[in-house]
């Protein structure tokens, strides 16, 4: 019965019909509002930043969303038709062929694409720089000989780019807790003969030990008491105990909500202004699972000498992150004592 009503109605309670007397309609609406909260406002679609093909609106919702993302992605400027053709080709390959495919990425590197992985699709759909702002920053900031920390490396999308930029004289320490992903990460490292990369098959946190890890699709994270998904036991360690004594220019953390714990486990490193820049993905609903929040993480970093900023690739400038920063969850935390170095690197004078 309720399927005939608009989707914006969340309640499963009685709904007034056009035949219900006005006073009765008011009573029913008020009772439902008290129980469920006010009805969410209808949000009308805004004008897209870049006009994408109108024919994509006739596609299923998921496909339409993929087409829209590929069409609007900044890395696809000047190659949108090619991006859509590559997207279709990858979907056909996954379904009809299925065997792993070696992709050419970052100009001269190889990345093995498995049909049940999400990272290859991001390379294919988004012009070789899936996370455009973050990867553009890396290309302008990192130098040969630098140290890079990749927390939550998955199959190596960021690891390979960092290794290319820091070169044989640099060092990349990639942390991946799930054995299957860690094996694929090593496979990509070995295929490119990256001797500067060290793969650590472990989770990172505030204390050493062992922890249950949730496996969900192609993602994974430390298990909480609310989880009902398949889990496995993995080794847990601190960055302070694992990383060698050297200078690190940059670190990336994408650990599905346990970023605060990972940072706490790197307190000694952070006290020395290492690395100069942290690249973080901070989402409140993920952080809440582990007793933290975006605001708490920001305050902790501020107390430990780091300022949160955003990077504008068009102007090649760091800009202050609003509080709270929106709309993207990705943010940079820059060491105050090394801020001049960061800006000089971006300007090409370091």
Features:
4-stranded mixed beta sheet, 350 residues, 13 helices, globular, alpha/beta, 3 domains, Rossmann fold
Detailed description of the structure:
It contains 13 helices and 14 strands. The chain is α/β, with parallel strands linked by helices. The protein folds into three domains: 2-36, no CATH class; 55-125, no CATH class; 132-347, Vaccinia Virus protein VP39 (Rossmann fold, 3-Layer(aba) Sandwich). It has an eight-stranded mixed sheet with strand order 5-4-3-10-11-14-12-13, with helices on both faces. A four-stranded mixed sheet has the order 6-9-7-8. A two-stranded antiparallel ribbon has the order 1-2. Mean pLDDT is 79; it is low at 1-23, 39-48 and 218-228.
Structure, briefly:
This protein is an alpha/beta fold. It has helices spanning 22-36, 61-72, 80-96, 119-125, 132-141, 157-166, 179-191, 239-242, 259-264, 267-271, 284-287, 294-303, 339-347; strands spanning 101-105, 109-113, 147-151, 171-175, 197-200, 203-204, 209-216, 219-222, 231-237, 250-253, 277-281, 306-312, 317-320, 330-335.
